[in-house]
């Protein structure tokens, strides 16, 4: 089945809305390179649209009612927003789910060392990356440092024009004969992804021990103390993420694409948020669930395997109708969900990895995947035909351009989202999202048309799915 290129369906009004959506999306990508930064941004945007912290209702003993809008945050890395509808909650919700973590490199807890009069930060990569892609790029440092007294210092170095940037070095071509004989997955070793952090020795300082004088590490520590009131031991309670430095940019001579770090899966998270904030009065309660840790298996307190979402739904039920475990289970089972995550866009330069009839394409709209998993659908949620039939009707009502796709050839590809976890509740779930080229690379590529169609598709889902 050939799908139209979405660009051919737009009039001037569509193109204007598309550009507005793209500009706001690029601003989000530029400002939000960590989970914490995403949550900060999302809470701010939600409050402007009338959403309130659910703690205000819980602590104040205030019941919820149709039309109320609330959000709940877990450890500043996971958020659920609810727009309470007029129907009983036990009828189910329309849920948009996505993740806000992205592949990156993390700083270890005892990271700072000096070698050959160069200061480094020791690292551990996060998620699936091609390690060789991360060398010789301008890199930025984002995150928080938490002191023993609970004081939180936010860190962002490398994004402003006046900031320094950092780098992971590589071996020059003239000396890399043995290196280039290695397989691609070990041509750069994980232990060699250490961040070059400084090279200037400290000036004479009588307060330092003799062994610390004139060392590069000592100078780094002095700078950290001057600017962040940070001691070396504070690294132990820090969360520092190394990400590509620089803002999201238009790509292509026609400005039809967006190049940025972190589009997996912030492209789905942002368009889901945008749809959620646009839909005001709803009959069926709508929810936007944005989670952490998907790139490493959805584990931990802020991953989808945690009980945070279920516990929050229980709080919503209690505030609406009184505590009832049975109503919580009915609410979850009767819900419908788009588990939104990116799909691999067909790349003609690597055509052997794709099956063309079942691939997603840049510019052809929101992508649906009946199943994900790998090699025999292992680990997959497999959406049923009845649900897909309803979705087709919903997309038609919303005039949404969409396509169906798998992620690569049967014996090559595969992947997963949070769909299989949510399906455990018995709800209707399907994978959906945006086609991305160069997925999991430091800089990823999307089509503006697909971003716009994802936003339209999520609005249609919240409005028309019942």
Characteristic terms for this protein:
single chain; nine-stranded mixed sheet; 466 residues; six-stranded antiparallel sheet; Aminopeptidase; 2 domains; globular; alpha/beta; Aminopeptidase i, Domain 2
**What is the helical fraction, as a range of percent?**
25-40%
State the name of the first-level CATH class of the largest domain.
Answer: Alpha Beta
**What sequence of helices (H) and strands (E) makes up the elements?**
HHEHEEEEEEEEHEEEHEHHEEEHEHEEEH
Q: Shape, please?
A: globular
| Strand portion | 15-25%
Query: Main beta sheet: strand number and arrangement?
Result: 9 strands, mixed
Structural class: alpha/beta
Spatial order of strands in the largest sheet: 1-2-3-13-4-14-18-16-17
CATH superfamily of the largest domain: Zn peptidases
Counted up, domains total 2
CATH architecture of the largest domain: 3-Layer(aba) Sandwich
Distance between the termini: 27 Å
Report the radius of gyration as a whole number of Å.
24 Å
Report the count of strand segments: 20
Rounded average pLDDT: 94
Could you explain the architecture of this structure?
The chain is built from ten helices and 20 strands. The protein has 466 residues and is α/β, with parallel strands linked by helices. The model has no long low-confidence stretch (mean pLDDT 94). The protein folds into two domains: 6-102 and 261-464, 3-Layer(aba) Sandwich (Aminopeptidase); 104-244, Aminopeptidase i, Domain 2, CATH 2.30.250. The chain has a nine-stranded mixed beta sheet, sandwiched between helices.
């Amino acid at each position: 089945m050939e799908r139209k290129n979405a660009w051919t369906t737009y009039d001037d009004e569509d193109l204007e809305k598309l550009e507005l959506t793209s500009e706001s999306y690029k601003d989000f990508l530029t400002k939000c390179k960590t989970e914490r930064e995403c949550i900060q941004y999302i809470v701010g945007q939600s409050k402007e649209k009338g959403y309130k912290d659910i703690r205000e209702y819980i602590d104040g003993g205030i019941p919820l009612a149709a039309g109320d809008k609330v959000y709940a945050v877990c450890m500043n890395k996971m958020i659920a927003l609810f727009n309470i509808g007029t129907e009983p909650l036990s009828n189910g919700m329309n849920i948009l789910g996505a993740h806000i973590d992205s592949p990156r490199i993390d700083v270890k807890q005892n990271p700072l060392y000096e070698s050959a009069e160069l200061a480094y930060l020791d690292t551990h990569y996060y998620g699936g990356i091609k390690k060789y892609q991360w060398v010789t790029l301008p890199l930025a440092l984002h995150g928080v440092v938490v002191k023993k007294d609970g004081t939180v210092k936010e860190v962002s170095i490398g994004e402003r024009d006046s900031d320094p940037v950092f780098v992971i070095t590589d071996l020059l071509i003239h000396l890399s004969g043995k290196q280039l004989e290695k397989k691609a997955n070990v041509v750069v070793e994980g232990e060699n992804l250490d961040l070059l952090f400084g090279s200037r020795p400290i000036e004479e300082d009588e307060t330092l021990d003799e062994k610390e004088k004139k060392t590069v590490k000592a100078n780094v520590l002095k700078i950290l103390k001057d600017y962040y009131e940070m001691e070396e031991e504070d690294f132990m309670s820090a969360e520092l993420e190394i990400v590509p430095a620089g803002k999201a940019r238009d790509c292509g001579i026609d400005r039809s694409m967006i190049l940025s770090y972190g589009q997996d899966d912030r492209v789905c998270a942002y368009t889901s948020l945008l749809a959620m904030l646009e839909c005001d009065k709803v009959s069926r309660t709508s929810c936007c669930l944005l989670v952490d840790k998907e790139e490493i298996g959805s584990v931990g307190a802020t991953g989808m395997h945690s009980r945070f979402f279920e516990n929050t739904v229980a709080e919503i039920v209690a505030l609406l109708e009184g505590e009832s475990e049975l109503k919580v289970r009915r609410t979850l089972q009767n819900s419908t969900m788009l588990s939104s995550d990116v799909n691999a866009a067909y790349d003609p330069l690597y055509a052997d990895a794709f099956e063309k009839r079942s691939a997603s394409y840049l510019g052809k709209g929101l992508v649906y995947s009946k199943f994900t998993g790998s090699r025999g659908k292992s680990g997959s949620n497999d959406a049923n035909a009845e649900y897909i039939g309803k979705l087709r009707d919903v997309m038609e009502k919303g005039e949404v351009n969409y396509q169906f796709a798998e992620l690569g050839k049967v014996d090559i590809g595969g992947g997963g989202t949070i769909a299989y976890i949510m399906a455990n509740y018995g709800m209707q779930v399907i994978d959906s999202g945006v086609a991305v080229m160069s997925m999991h690379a430091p800089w990823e590529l999307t089509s503006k048309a697909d971003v716009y169609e994802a936003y339209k598709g999520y609005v249609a889902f919240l409005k028309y799915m019942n």
